């Protein structure tokens, strides 16, 4: 796949992806994701311009995925997509402590590719997420919308950059398998890529989780080691010392550390990367027993970030050619050059 008009070689089918030339750092990206037009059927889904339009059309149709966890029960709306329900059912069934350990072994080698951030976006530009409110826009658009909303609110540069890269861990779909819940297509299982996370190794908190009726399907809940309030953890051990259902958050957090870019960020930034999908804690107020001193700072930062992530679904599509040089400047400062993926 050509990137930025250069003669790069990206092997998208093997386990290792390489690009042979270095990217110029300030050039605007040549990639231009194809947007799905509102009102069009695309594969199995109909795309609506916004949640209200979907509400008017058919809130219960299985062909609709616009409604999601984040504009479903969490804010009182009733519309639900069967696709999203299925996503969470599969997520609860498969995401056990052992599964997470297997995913960690598979992904934390970071030997799949060497890519710049821009190249990573290019590879992800046709990815559509089965559990995200921003279902009808390519990830790079959601990334820029989030970053721009943070920038418009005069938040620090590091937070703008985190807004840009926070979902980039979904690039695992490039090398993942549908058998592991990491399919690339929206009709393939993606339960190890996205969706609200939880702590594995202790009891699932029904009161703080989306679709808690699926909790009983989680095999760990039959295991006395894992099905108590504290499970394998000690109260007060700290939110960053827990193990989470595996997905793009954890991957991106570890990827930044692996590439030694963590030293460029404040600790809150890393907490946002890792825990922005951890709704049962940052929104549901569960797992309080594990908090330690300093976790309140993380909580505030994640809640602050979350408003831009959720509500950056602006109708305006950001002008990438104009904006990219600014963000490339931030990339060069915080996550520069070719990175191990
Ligand atoms: Fe995310
Ligand atoms: Fe996001």
SSE map:
Elements: E1 17-18, E2 41-42, E3 45-46, H1 51-57, H2 82-94, H3 97-107, E4 113-115, H4 117-124, H5 139-152, H6 157-165, E5 199-200, E6 243-244, H7 248-258, H8 267-275, H9 279-282, H10 295-310, H11 320-334, E7 339-340
Parallel strand pairs: 1-4
Antiparallel strand pairs: 2-3, 4-7, 5-6
Bound molecules: fe (ii) ion (FE2) (2 copies).
What's the gist of this structure?
The chain has 341 residues and is mainly α.
What key phrases describe this protein's structure?
mainly alpha, 3-stranded mixed beta sheet, two-stranded antiparallel sheet, 11 helices, globular
Plain-language structure description:
This protein is mainly alpha-helical and 341 residues long. The chain has one domain (81-340). It is built from 11 helices and 7 strands. A hairpin with a 2-residue loop joins strand 2 and strand 3 (45-46). Helix 5 packs antiparallel against helix 6 (157-165) and helix 6 (157-165) packs across helix 11 (320-334). The longest helix is centred in the last third of the chain and has 16 residues, at 295-310. Mean pLDDT is 80; it is low at 1-80. The chain binds fe (ii) ion (2 copies). One fe (ii) ion (FE2) binds at residues 166-167, 248, 276-277.
N-to-C span: 17 Å
Number of domains: 1
Query: Helical amount among residues, as a percent range?
Result: 25-40%
Q: Uncertain regions: pLDDT < 50 for 5+ in a row? A: 1-80
Bound molecules: fe (ii) ion
Classify the beta-strand content into a percent band.
under 5%
Mean pLDDT: 80
Helices and strands, in order, run as EEEHHHEHHHEEHHHHHE
